[in-house]
Amino acid sequence: MAMKKLALFSLLLNLAIFLAIVPKTTGEGYGGGGGDDDCGDLLGSDLYKDICPEAEAIIFARVRLAVFEDTRMAASLLRLHFHDCFGCDASVLLDDTDNFVGEKTAAPNLNSLRGFEVIDAIKQELEFVCPQTVSCADILATAARDSVVVSGGPSWDVQMGRKDSLTASKALANNIIPGPNSTIGNLVAKFQNVNLSLKDMVALSGAHTMGKARCTTFAARLRDSTNPNAPEASLEFIQSLQQLCSVSDGSTLANLDLATPETFDNQYYVNLLSGEGLLPSDQNLVTGDEQTRELVETYAQDMSTFFQDFKDSMIKLGRLGPVTGTNGEIRRNCRSVN
Q1: What positions does UniProt annotate as the active site of this protein (predicted)?
Q2: According to the annotation, is 81 in a ligand binding site?
Q3: Which is nearest to 257 in space by CA: 191, 294, 201, 212?
Q4: Where are the domains of the chain?
Q5: What confidence tens digit (pLDDT) does each residue in 198-239 have?
Protein backbone atom coordinates (compact mmCIF):
# COMPACT_ATOMS: atom_id res chain seq x y z
CA MET A 1 0.00 0.00 0.00
CA ALA A 2 2.83 2.40 0.86
CA MET A 3 4.42 1.71 -2.53
CA LYS A 4 1.15 2.54 -4.31
CA LYS A 5 0.79 5.78 -2.36
CA LEU A 6 4.35 6.76 -3.25
CA ALA A 7 3.75 6.02 -6.92
CA LEU A 8 0.53 8.05 -6.87
CA PHE A 9 2.30 10.98 -5.18
CA SER A 10 5.05 10.87 -7.82
CA LEU A 11 2.45 10.86 -10.58
CA LEU A 12 0.58 13.84 -9.13
CA LEU A 13 3.83 15.75 -8.76
CA ASN A 14 4.67 15.15 -12.42
CA LEU A 15 1.21 16.29 -13.43
CA ALA A 16 1.59 19.50 -11.47
CA ILE A 17 4.83 20.23 -13.31
CA PHE A 18 3.53 19.53 -16.79
CA LEU A 19 -0.12 20.54 -16.60
CA ALA A 20 0.63 24.20 -17.22
CA ILE A 21 2.41 23.53 -20.51
CA VAL A 22 0.67 20.49 -21.94
CA PRO A 23 -1.20 21.26 -25.20
CA LYS A 24 -4.94 21.42 -24.62
CA THR A 25 -7.67 19.91 -26.74
CA THR A 26 -10.54 22.22 -25.97
CA GLY A 27 -13.51 23.24 -28.04
CA GLU A 28 -15.85 21.38 -30.35
CA GLY A 29 -15.04 18.46 -32.61
CA TYR A 30 -13.56 19.11 -36.04
CA GLY A 31 -16.22 19.58 -38.70
CA GLY A 32 -16.91 17.41 -41.73
CA GLY A 33 -15.37 17.76 -45.16
CA GLY A 34 -12.28 16.60 -47.01
CA GLY A 35 -11.44 13.07 -45.93
CA ASP A 36 -13.87 12.98 -43.01
CA ASP A 37 -16.33 10.12 -42.83
CA ASP A 38 -19.24 9.05 -40.65
CA CYS A 39 -16.90 7.40 -38.14
CA GLY A 40 -14.80 10.56 -37.99
CA ASP A 41 -17.88 12.53 -36.97
CA LEU A 42 -18.01 10.50 -33.73
CA LEU A 43 -14.66 11.88 -32.60
CA GLY A 44 -14.41 14.87 -30.27
CA SER A 45 -11.74 16.84 -28.48
CA ASP A 46 -12.85 16.68 -24.84
CA LEU A 47 -13.68 12.99 -24.45
CA TYR A 48 -11.37 12.39 -21.48
CA LYS A 49 -12.06 15.65 -19.65
CA ASP A 50 -14.24 13.94 -17.05
CA ILE A 51 -13.32 10.25 -17.28
CA CYS A 52 -9.51 10.64 -17.34
CA PRO A 53 -8.57 14.32 -16.95
CA GLU A 54 -4.87 13.48 -16.45
CA ALA A 55 -4.58 11.67 -19.79
CA GLU A 56 -3.07 14.41 -21.95
CA ALA A 57 -0.69 15.60 -19.23
CA ILE A 58 0.61 12.06 -18.79
CA ILE A 59 1.11 11.59 -22.53
CA PHE A 60 2.85 14.95 -22.91
CA ALA A 61 5.19 14.32 -19.98
CA ARG A 62 6.20 10.92 -21.33
CA VAL A 63 6.76 12.26 -24.85
CA ARG A 64 8.79 15.18 -23.58
CA LEU A 65 10.99 12.87 -21.53
CA ALA A 66 11.44 10.43 -24.43
CA VAL A 67 12.48 13.21 -26.82
CA PHE A 68 14.82 14.68 -24.20
CA GLU A 69 16.52 11.29 -23.90
CA ASP A 70 16.55 10.67 -27.68
CA THR A 71 15.79 13.62 -29.97
CA ARG A 72 15.13 11.26 -32.86
CA MET A 73 12.12 9.92 -30.97
CA ALA A 74 10.02 12.96 -31.95
CA ALA A 75 10.15 11.97 -35.60
CA SER A 76 9.68 8.31 -34.71
CA LEU A 77 6.43 8.92 -32.82
CA LEU A 78 5.09 11.16 -35.58
CA ARG A 79 5.91 8.52 -38.18
CA LEU A 80 4.38 5.76 -36.06
CA HIS A 81 1.07 7.64 -36.06
CA PHE A 82 1.28 8.23 -39.80
CA HIS A 83 1.90 4.55 -40.56
CA ASP A 84 -1.01 3.62 -38.29
CA CYS A 85 -3.22 6.34 -39.67
CA PHE A 86 -4.04 5.19 -43.06
CA GLY A 87 -6.55 3.62 -40.61
CA CYS A 88 -5.93 5.23 -37.18
CA ASP A 89 -6.81 2.15 -35.14
CA ALA A 90 -3.54 1.18 -33.37
CA SER A 91 -3.30 -1.91 -35.59
CA VAL A 92 0.37 -1.11 -36.19
CA LEU A 93 1.10 -1.72 -32.49
CA LEU A 94 -0.01 -5.37 -32.45
CA ASP A 95 2.77 -7.95 -32.09
CA ASP A 96 2.87 -11.09 -34.21
CA THR A 97 1.82 -14.33 -32.51
CA ASP A 98 1.89 -17.99 -33.51
CA ASN A 99 -1.45 -17.61 -35.28
CA PHE A 100 -1.47 -13.91 -36.17
CA VAL A 101 0.69 -11.76 -38.47
CA GLY A 102 0.43 -8.03 -37.84
CA GLU A 103 1.77 -4.96 -39.60
CA LYS A 104 5.17 -4.62 -37.92
CA THR A 105 6.79 -6.90 -40.51
CA ALA A 106 5.23 -5.12 -43.50
CA ALA A 107 7.86 -3.72 -45.87
CA PRO A 108 7.32 -0.03 -44.93
CA ASN A 109 7.56 -0.88 -41.21
CA LEU A 110 10.12 -3.66 -40.78
CA ASN A 111 13.33 -2.49 -39.06
CA SER A 112 12.02 1.02 -39.55
CA LEU A 113 9.29 1.97 -37.09
CA ARG A 114 10.40 3.01 -33.60
CA GLY A 115 8.80 4.31 -30.43
CA PHE A 116 6.77 1.28 -29.39
CA GLU A 117 8.37 1.29 -25.94
CA VAL A 118 7.30 4.93 -25.42
CA ILE A 119 3.70 4.04 -26.22
CA ASP A 120 4.00 1.06 -23.85
CA ALA A 121 5.19 3.34 -21.03
CA ILE A 122 2.36 5.80 -21.63
CA LYS A 123 -0.22 3.03 -21.69
CA GLN A 124 1.12 1.46 -18.50
CA GLU A 125 0.87 4.76 -16.64
CA LEU A 126 -2.62 5.47 -17.98
CA GLU A 127 -3.79 1.99 -17.00
CA PHE A 128 -2.68 2.71 -13.43
CA VAL A 129 -4.59 6.02 -13.30
CA CYS A 130 -7.59 5.28 -15.57
CA PRO A 131 -7.86 1.54 -16.23
CA GLN A 132 -9.11 0.57 -19.71
CA THR A 133 -10.20 4.11 -20.54
CA VAL A 134 -7.76 5.68 -23.03
CA SER A 135 -7.30 3.80 -26.29
CA CYS A 136 -3.91 3.07 -27.80
CA ALA A 137 -5.08 4.77 -31.01
CA ASP A 138 -5.80 8.00 -29.10
CA ILE A 139 -2.42 7.72 -27.37
CA LEU A 140 -0.71 7.49 -30.77
CA ALA A 141 -2.56 10.52 -32.14
CA THR A 142 -1.79 12.61 -29.06
CA ALA A 143 1.85 11.53 -28.84
CA ALA A 144 2.34 12.54 -32.48
CA ARG A 145 0.99 16.02 -31.76
CA ASP A 146 3.14 16.36 -28.65
CA SER A 147 6.28 15.24 -30.48
CA VAL A 148 5.77 18.14 -32.89
CA VAL A 149 5.14 20.61 -30.06
CA VAL A 150 8.25 19.70 -28.06
CA SER A 151 10.30 20.08 -31.25
CA GLY A 152 9.18 23.66 -31.84
CA GLY A 153 6.20 23.01 -34.09
CA PRO A 154 2.51 23.92 -33.86
CA SER A 155 -0.15 22.43 -31.61
CA TRP A 156 -3.67 21.38 -32.55
CA ASP A 157 -6.77 19.87 -30.98
CA VAL A 158 -6.48 16.09 -31.15
CA GLN A 159 -9.80 14.42 -31.86
CA MET A 160 -10.45 11.59 -29.39
CA GLY A 161 -12.74 8.59 -29.29
CA ARG A 162 -10.97 6.01 -31.45
CA LYS A 163 -11.21 2.40 -30.39
CA ASP A 164 -8.39 -0.08 -30.88
CA SER A 165 -8.74 -2.59 -33.69
CA LEU A 166 -9.12 -6.29 -33.05
CA THR A 167 -6.87 -7.25 -35.95
CA ALA A 168 -4.30 -5.93 -38.43
CA SER A 169 -3.39 -6.46 -42.09
CA LYS A 170 0.18 -6.81 -43.29
CA ALA A 171 -1.02 -6.89 -46.91
CA LEU A 172 -2.94 -3.65 -46.50
CA ALA A 173 0.04 -1.95 -44.86
CA ASN A 174 2.23 -3.03 -47.78
CA ASN A 175 -0.23 -1.61 -50.28
CA ILE A 176 -1.39 1.71 -48.85
CA ILE A 177 1.65 3.27 -47.16
CA PRO A 178 3.65 5.46 -49.61
CA GLY A 179 7.24 4.38 -50.20
CA PRO A 180 10.45 6.45 -50.34
CA ASN A 181 10.80 6.01 -54.11
CA SER A 182 7.22 6.95 -54.97
CA THR A 183 6.56 9.09 -58.01
CA ILE A 184 4.21 12.06 -57.78
CA GLY A 185 1.49 10.04 -59.50
CA ASN A 186 1.99 7.24 -57.02
CA LEU A 187 1.87 9.58 -54.02
CA VAL A 188 -1.21 11.44 -55.23
CA ALA A 189 -3.06 8.17 -55.85
CA LYS A 190 -2.33 6.79 -52.38
CA PHE A 191 -3.38 9.98 -50.65
CA GLN A 192 -6.50 10.35 -52.79
CA ASN A 193 -7.45 6.75 -51.98
CA VAL A 194 -7.97 7.87 -48.39
CA ASN A 195 -9.53 11.22 -49.36
CA LEU A 196 -6.49 13.34 -48.60
CA SER A 197 -5.83 16.15 -51.06
CA LEU A 198 -2.69 17.15 -52.92
CA LYS A 199 -2.23 19.99 -50.43
CA ASP A 200 -2.56 17.52 -47.55
CA MET A 201 0.12 15.40 -49.18
CA VAL A 202 2.62 18.25 -49.49
CA ALA A 203 1.87 19.62 -46.02
CA LEU A 204 2.17 16.21 -44.32
CA SER A 205 5.43 15.57 -46.17
CA GLY A 206 6.80 18.45 -44.10
CA ALA A 207 7.07 15.97 -41.23
CA HIS A 208 10.36 15.05 -42.91
CA THR A 209 11.81 18.19 -41.40
CA MET A 210 12.80 15.78 -38.61
CA GLY A 211 14.09 12.23 -38.53
CA LYS A 212 16.54 10.01 -40.35
CA ALA A 213 16.57 7.49 -43.20
CA ARG A 214 18.79 4.54 -44.07
CA CYS A 215 21.05 4.60 -47.13
CA THR A 216 18.97 1.82 -48.66
CA THR A 217 15.89 4.05 -48.76
CA PHE A 218 17.53 6.78 -50.85
CA ALA A 219 19.83 4.67 -53.04
CA ALA A 220 18.16 6.11 -56.13
CA ARG A 221 19.25 9.61 -55.08
CA LEU A 222 22.88 8.47 -55.02
CA ARG A 223 22.73 8.03 -58.79
CA ASP A 224 21.55 11.60 -59.41
CA SER A 225 25.13 12.88 -59.78
CA THR A 226 25.13 11.38 -63.27
CA ASN A 227 22.23 13.65 -64.24
CA PRO A 228 23.65 16.67 -66.14
CA ASN A 229 20.46 18.64 -65.47
CA ALA A 230 20.69 18.38 -61.68
CA PRO A 231 21.27 21.77 -60.01
CA GLU A 232 24.80 22.41 -58.77
CA ALA A 233 23.74 22.58 -55.13
CA SER A 234 22.12 19.16 -55.36
CA LEU A 235 25.26 17.65 -56.91
CA GLU A 236 27.28 18.65 -53.86
CA PHE A 237 24.54 17.20 -51.67
CA ILE A 238 24.47 13.92 -53.60
CA GLN A 239 28.24 13.62 -53.45
CA SER A 240 28.15 14.03 -49.67
CA LEU A 241 25.55 11.25 -49.48
CA GLN A 242 27.65 9.01 -51.70
CA GLN A 243 30.57 9.47 -49.33
CA LEU A 244 28.38 8.75 -46.30
CA CYS A 245 26.96 5.57 -47.81
CA SER A 246 30.11 4.32 -49.58
CA VAL A 247 31.27 2.22 -46.63
CA SER A 248 27.76 1.35 -45.51
CA ASP A 249 25.99 -1.97 -45.35
CA GLY A 250 22.82 -0.02 -46.01
CA SER A 251 22.01 0.64 -42.38
CA THR A 252 23.86 3.97 -42.10
CA LEU A 253 21.47 6.81 -41.25
CA ALA A 254 21.29 10.28 -42.76
CA ASN A 255 19.25 13.23 -41.51
CA LEU A 256 16.19 13.99 -43.62
CA ASP A 257 16.94 17.67 -42.98
CA LEU A 258 20.67 18.42 -42.72
CA ALA A 259 20.20 22.04 -41.63
CA THR A 260 17.87 21.76 -38.61
CA PRO A 261 17.37 18.01 -38.07
CA GLU A 262 15.92 18.23 -34.55
CA THR A 263 13.59 21.20 -35.08
CA PHE A 264 10.10 21.16 -36.54
CA ASP A 265 10.20 24.04 -39.03
CA ASN A 266 9.90 24.73 -42.78
CA GLN A 267 13.56 24.03 -43.62
CA TYR A 268 12.53 20.81 -45.38
CA TYR A 269 10.90 22.84 -48.14
CA VAL A 270 13.88 25.18 -48.42
CA ASN A 271 16.06 22.10 -48.87
CA LEU A 272 13.82 20.74 -51.64
CA LEU A 273 14.16 23.96 -53.64
CA SER A 274 17.95 23.61 -53.36
CA GLY A 275 17.81 20.04 -54.66
CA GLU A 276 18.59 18.64 -51.22
CA GLY A 277 15.63 16.37 -50.55
CA LEU A 278 16.95 13.10 -49.15
CA LEU A 279 14.27 10.71 -50.36
CA PRO A 280 13.37 10.50 -54.06
CA SER A 281 9.69 10.92 -53.11
CA ASP A 282 10.57 14.18 -51.34
CA GLN A 283 12.53 15.69 -54.22
CA ASN A 284 9.77 14.65 -56.62
CA LEU A 285 7.51 17.24 -54.96
CA VAL A 286 9.62 19.87 -56.73
CA THR A 287 10.59 18.14 -59.96
CA GLY A 288 7.52 16.04 -60.68
CA ASP A 289 4.56 18.41 -60.63
CA GLU A 290 3.98 22.15 -60.96
CA GLN A 291 1.19 22.25 -58.35
CA THR A 292 3.27 20.52 -55.71
CA ARG A 293 6.25 22.75 -56.51
CA GLU A 294 4.11 25.85 -55.95
CA LEU A 295 3.08 24.55 -52.53
CA VAL A 296 6.71 23.78 -51.68
CA GLU A 297 7.65 27.35 -52.62
CA THR A 298 4.82 28.75 -50.48
CA TYR A 299 5.83 26.73 -47.42
CA ALA A 300 9.53 27.54 -47.91
CA GLN A 301 8.71 31.25 -47.85
CA ASP A 302 6.05 31.26 -45.11
CA MET A 303 6.41 28.97 -42.10
CA SER A 304 3.12 30.15 -40.56
CA THR A 305 1.21 29.00 -43.64
CA PHE A 306 2.97 25.64 -43.46
CA PHE A 307 2.16 25.28 -39.77
CA GLN A 308 -1.52 26.05 -40.34
CA ASP A 309 -1.85 23.66 -43.27
CA PHE A 310 0.09 20.96 -41.42
CA LYS A 311 -2.25 21.25 -38.42
CA ASP A 312 -5.33 21.03 -40.64
CA SER A 313 -3.94 18.02 -42.49
CA MET A 314 -2.95 16.23 -39.29
CA ILE A 315 -6.51 16.58 -38.01
CA LYS A 316 -7.80 15.09 -41.27
CA LEU A 317 -5.20 12.33 -41.10
CA GLY A 318 -6.28 11.49 -37.56
CA ARG A 319 -9.86 11.00 -38.73
CA LEU A 320 -9.10 8.38 -41.37
CA GLY A 321 -11.16 5.25 -40.77
CA PRO A 322 -11.14 5.21 -36.98
CA VAL A 323 -12.67 2.22 -35.22
CA THR A 324 -15.49 3.45 -33.00
CA GLY A 325 -18.35 2.12 -30.89
CA THR A 326 -18.62 -1.64 -30.53
CA ASN A 327 -16.36 -2.31 -33.54
CA GLY A 328 -13.24 -2.16 -31.40
CA GLU A 329 -11.99 -2.17 -27.82
CA ILE A 330 -9.80 -0.32 -25.34
CA ARG A 331 -6.74 -2.54 -25.11
CA ARG A 332 -5.10 -3.09 -21.74
CA ASN A 333 -1.80 -3.69 -23.54
CA CYS A 334 -1.21 -1.95 -26.85
CA ARG A 335 0.71 -4.93 -28.23
CA SER A 336 -2.16 -7.42 -28.00
CA VAL A 337 -5.93 -7.63 -28.06
CA ASN A 338 -7.70 -8.20 -24.75
Answers
A1: 83
A2: no
A3: 212
A4: 35-178+317-327, 184-315
A5: 999 999 999 999 999 999 999 888 886 666 555 555 888 998
